[in-house]
């Protein structure tokens, strides 16, 4: 057992790993170096592997996007062929969704932070966790291998609609590699889901009740449950797709009595929960960050927990809003469910605003990225509400308006992910990112994203369909496409700034100390980086922000509104963002 | 047009409304009237379109944009205000407010009411848009295939077929109810006419039916919107709305007057007297060079 500390004076200070009580059980005796990295079952090492791999995938997917945007700067672009264009947007979408956004969130930062946030030494099933990562890496390489086989990579869009994805319409190994990759990464996700749920239910430290869990951990619990509901359905659907392609079943083929629409149902029954599987972890990240840098508790913590649970429950009943134009789904039902789910999603904005309200907001890069998330995600949310109305979806479906809508959402996630990296980097490495480069990166990413997206809304309203290698029929779309491509170039610059900052960060000294942001949750109680098995000692857990309570012993505990919330006069602490 | 404005006015939010709820009702009624007074509201980048159905979708779009901009603008202002007004001024720890039940109830109830209105307007427009009449004036069987369109007019000999850059033309009468029976020979395609503010998938094994009423004669360039393979971006067609008399002549294909024509680049029902306003798509695509792709 680790010790429970009551007063700040007992706390281990600075870089000092040598807390007396920690000796012995804090040491890790095992292989070191490369072998350690390859064989490790430590959630922190696995989390870092996930983070590095998924950021690499983000960059690869982004490079595909740059080629796409290059092709579209002229109506009859000749940068790539029609066939290559179809491969590029398919692989862009697939890499971003399957290999970046999910693994980054629930494999990377969650893997690293969730056990520490609840005071656990590791994930519940460390070896299963390692298997998750290796399945993910294998799956990623499998998908990308598609470019090197005869016939090229998969080219039927990231949704792989039947019967375009059958063996007649898409022969070749690229499509099979795509299916194989999704099976591998799908199992990886399922195992991570099992691990998250088990860890959060069974490994919480004494005192860490469900309603004292950090909001990021809450989001990851709900994400884990959603993974377990959604991913097996996709896996089953993919097995049937593979059987259709190779074993002559006709599950998705009308010629054999099957139904192509069935694939759409299966795909979106996974696909809509997947939207929240992707979004909730990022919600969790910025919900940790905004209160910390506003120097306040999260406003409406319990309401937010219920909103998250409600979202998860409703998210399995909205899938057919992606199928409004099929003509075979009950429009009012799925529209109604989508409006319902927009309510808990929408009220989160007021939790975030309420947390800033009356605060002392420190403009760290992490905080700026979070504000950028709020604004960009707001635009995606409002346009999502428009698309939830079937008559408006008939009008906008499969145009660039939809591409713009979901990029408002996913670019917000990228901003949120960056916020998470800037926030947790000192914990993970003991080092700070450079804040000047960070702020430059923020402005490039935030302005670039919106410059890239806004023209796409307009060009979609003007009738430009998505997945068009050429638009010779309507050269008037060119100007807006060029603006959008400039925006994409600005995003690319922001990633140059990011890579530079990673290098600068890795060369900087380890000055972070355990709790540089005066933060709330347990990961900020232990050393930076945390020792093997995470803690030498734990504070008493009496509220949802044990670390804050520990460092502010004279501040009154969190209570309801009628509880006197005034703080002790003259009580101050400094949060310095290093320049 | 039957108007939800009157409906709202007859039915105030509740008999014993508080001041806030009453004000909300008034705002909502004002928004509803904005929704229907389409002409004064900006287009927000969309277009009225050329069918009676597209006009309604357009007003719905305007209403949603008005409400969306108000809600979004309000939230955006709150975000920016909070971020700027409460920037760090000292190291003092601010009040640790965590809950405020009144505020929490307000920000749950108001969004619920707003989406309630949005759903109501949605159903109000959707039901007539997706309804089909029993006896349409004209029926066209539309089949999509890789990579072209087939327009067959049941009860006549006329079938128009065009592939990729050839621009098959869907000829329909103005001012009448037109029924489309839509399906696909192979993969999923998207039947989309921008000026109709409408799209529907063409799917193998599924027959989709919908009606529309074009209000003005004209010719509109369209294309497939659902990814269907290699030549998806070149799968064009045109819609041509003509007076019912011309439409009838086209279908009977008499030797004089308008008749069905097949050119190298288009397949159409052409009235020689008024030549097409659109150039054939292939005039624009013919000088393109498409590099040889791996599986092209
Ligand atoms: C980094 C900047 C990004 C740029 C410049 C970009 C650009 C684009 C463009 C232009 C398209 C449309 C291609 C077409 O329809 O012809 C597209 C599609 C798509 N993007 Fe992105 N994107 C970016 C980031 C992301 C991210 C972060 C995600 C997800 C997390 C994402 C997910 C998708 C998906 C799912 C599609 C649809 C692919 C399909 O139609 O099958 N994108 N992107
Ligand atoms: Cu969805
Ligand atoms: Cu197509």
CATH topology of chain A: Cytochrome C Oxidase, Chain A
CATH superfamily of the largest domain in chain B: Cupredoxins -  blue copper proteins
Spatially, the strands of the biggest sheet of chain B line up as 3-2-1-5-8
Q: Strand portion of chain B, in percent?
A: 15-25%
Strand residues, percent of chain A: under 5%
- SSE pattern of chain B, N- to C-terminal: HHHHEEEEEEEEEEHEEH
What does the largest sheet of chain B look like?
Answer: 5 strands, mixed
The shape of chain A is: globular
> Any idea of the CATH class of the largest domain in chain B?
Mainly Beta
Helix share bin of chain A: 55-70%
**Which structural class fits the helix and strand makeup of chain A?**
mainly alpha
How many alpha or pi helices of chain B? 6
- The CATH topology assignment of the largest domain in chain B is Immunoglobulin-like
| Biggest interface, chains and residue tallies | A-B, 111 and 98 residues
Low-confidence spans of chain A: 9-26, 560-569
Look at the helices and sheets of chain B and give the structural class. Answer: alpha/beta
CATH superfamily of chain A: Cytochrome c oxidase-like, subunit I domain
Please explain how this structure is put together:
The complex is a heterodimer of chains A (579) and B (296). Chain A is an all-alpha fold and 579 residues long. Chain A has helices spanning 33-39, 43-71, 82-117, 126-145, 173-202, 215-246, 260-294, 301-315, 331-356, 365-387, 390-396, 400-429, 435-461, 478-507, 546-551; strands spanning 3-5, 537-539. Chain A has a single domain, classed as Cytochrome C Oxidase, Chain A. Helices cover 61% and strands 1% of the residues of chain A. Chain B folds into 2 domains: 17-88 and 97-130, no CATH class; 138-286, Cupredoxins -  blue copper proteins (Immunoglobulin-like, Sandwich). In chain B, helix 1 runs antiparallel to helix 2 (19-36) and helix 2 packs across helix 3 (52-85). Chain B is elongated and about 85 Å long. Chain B starts with a helix and ends in an 11-residue tail after the last helix. At the A-B interface, helix 3, helix 7, helix 8, helix 9 and helix 10 of A face helix 3, helix 4, strand 7 and helix 6 of B. Protoporphyrin IX containing FE is lined by residues 62, 65, 68-69, 89-90, 92-93, 96-97, 100-101, 157-158, 403, 407, 410, 414, 452, 466-468, 488, 491 of chain A.
């Amino acid at each position: 057992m680790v010790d429970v500390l009551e007063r700040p004076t007992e706390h281990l200070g600075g870089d000092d790993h040598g807390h007396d009580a920690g000796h012995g059980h804090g040491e890790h005796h095992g292989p070191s170096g490369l072998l350690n990295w390859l064989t490790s079952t430590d959630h922190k090492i696995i989390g870092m592997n996930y983070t590095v791999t998924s950021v690499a995938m983000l960059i690869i997917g982004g490079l595909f996007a740059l080629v796409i945007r290059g092709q579209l700067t002229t109506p009859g672009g000749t940068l790539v062929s029609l066939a290559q264009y179809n491969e590029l947007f398919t692989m862009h979408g697939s890499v971003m969704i399957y290999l970046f956004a999910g693994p980054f969130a629930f494999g990377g930062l969650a893997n690293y932070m969730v056990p520490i946030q609840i005071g656990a030494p590791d994930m519940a099933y460390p070896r299963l966790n390692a298997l998750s990562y290796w399945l993910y890496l294998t799956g990623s390489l499998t998908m990308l291998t598609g470019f090197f086989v005869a016939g090229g990579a998969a080219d039927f869009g990231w949704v792989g609609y039947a019967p375009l994805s059958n063996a007649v319409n898409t022969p070749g190994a690229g499509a099979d590699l795509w299916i194989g990759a999704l099976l591998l990464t799908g199992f990886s996700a399922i195992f991570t889901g099992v691990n998250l749920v088990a860890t959060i239910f069974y490994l919480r430290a004494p005192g860490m009740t469900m309603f004292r869990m950090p909001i990021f951990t809450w989001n990851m619990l709900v994400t884990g449950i959603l993974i377990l509901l959604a991913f097996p359905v996709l896996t089953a659907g993919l097995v049937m797709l593979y059987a259709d392609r190779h074993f002559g079943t006709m599950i998705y083929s009308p010629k054999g009595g099957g139904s192509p629409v069935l694939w759409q149902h299966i795909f979106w029954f996974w696909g809509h929960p997947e939207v929240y599987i992707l979004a909730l972890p990022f919600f969790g990240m910025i919900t940790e960050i905004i209160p910390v840098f506003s120097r306040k508790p999260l406003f409406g913590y319990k309401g937010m927990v219920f909103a998250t649970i409600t979202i998860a429950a409703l998210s399995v009943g909205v899938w057919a809003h992606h199928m409004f134009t099929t003509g075979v789904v009950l429009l009012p039902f799925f529209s109604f469910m989508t409006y319902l789910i927009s309510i808990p999603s929408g009220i989160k904005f007021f939790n975030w605003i309420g947390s800033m309200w009356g605060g002392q907001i420190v403009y760290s890069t992490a905080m700026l990225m979070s504000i950028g998330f709020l604004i960009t995600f707001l635009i995606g949310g409002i346009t999502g509400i428009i698309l939830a109305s079937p008559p408006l979806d008939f009008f906008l479906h499969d145009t660039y308006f939809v591409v713009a809508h979901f990029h408002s959402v996913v670019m917000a996630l990228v901003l949120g992910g960056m916020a998470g990296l800037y926030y947790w980097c000192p914990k993970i490495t003991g080092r700070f990112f450079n804040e000047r480069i960070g702020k430059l990166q923020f402005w490039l990413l935030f302005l670039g994203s919106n410059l890239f997206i806004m023209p796409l809304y307009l060009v979609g309203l003007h009738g430009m369909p998505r997945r068009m290698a050429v638009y010779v029929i309507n050269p008037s779309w060119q100007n807006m496409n060029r603006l959008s491509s400039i925006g994409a170039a600005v995003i690319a610059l922001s990633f140059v700034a990011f890579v530079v900052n990673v290098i600068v960060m890795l060369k900087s000294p380890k000055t972070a100390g355990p709790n540089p942001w005066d933060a709330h949750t347990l990961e900020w109680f232990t050393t930076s980086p945390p020792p093997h098995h995470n803690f030498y000692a734990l504070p008493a857990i009496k509220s949802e922000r044990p670390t804050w309570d520990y460092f502010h012993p004279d501040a009154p505990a969190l209570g309801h509104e009628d509880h006197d919330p005034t703080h002790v006069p003259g009580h101050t602490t400094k949060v310095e963002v290093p320049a | 047009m039957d108007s939800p404005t009157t409906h709202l006015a007859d039915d105030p939010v509740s008999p014993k409304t508080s001041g806030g709820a009453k004000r909300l009702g008034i705002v909502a009624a004002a928004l509803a009237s904005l929704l229907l007074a389409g002409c004064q509201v900006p287009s927000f980048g969309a277009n009225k379109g050329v069918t009676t159905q597209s006009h309604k979708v357009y007003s719905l779009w305007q209403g949603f944009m008005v409400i969306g901009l108000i809600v979004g603008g309000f939230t955006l202002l709150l975000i920016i205000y909070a971020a700027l007004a409460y920037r760090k001024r000292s190291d003092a720890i601010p009040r640790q407010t965590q809950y405020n039940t009144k505020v929490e109830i307000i920000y749950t109830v108001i969004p619920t009411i707003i989406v309630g209105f949005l759903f109501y307007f949605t159903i109000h427009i959707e039901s007539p848009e997706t309804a089909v009449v029993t006896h349409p004036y004209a029926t066209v069987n539309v089949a999509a295939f890789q990579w072209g369109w087939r327009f067959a007019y049941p009860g006549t000999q006329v079938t128009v077929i065009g592939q990729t850059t050839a621009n098959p033309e869907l000829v329909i009468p103005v001012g009448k109810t037109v029924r489309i029976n839509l399906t696909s020979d192979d993969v999923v395609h998207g039947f989309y006419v921008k000026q109709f503010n409408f799209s529907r998938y063409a799917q193998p094994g599924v027959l989709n039916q919908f009606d529309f009423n074009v209000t003005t004669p004209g010719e509109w360039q369209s294309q497939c919107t659902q990814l269907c393979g290699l030549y998806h971006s070149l799968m064009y067609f045109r819609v041509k709305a003509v007076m019912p008399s011309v439409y009838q002549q086209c279908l009977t294909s008499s030797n004089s007057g308008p008749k069905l024509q097949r050119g190298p680049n288009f397949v159409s029902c052409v009235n020689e007297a008024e030549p097409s306003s659109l150039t054939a798509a292939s005039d624009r695509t013919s000088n393109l060079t498409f590099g040889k792709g791996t599986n092209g």
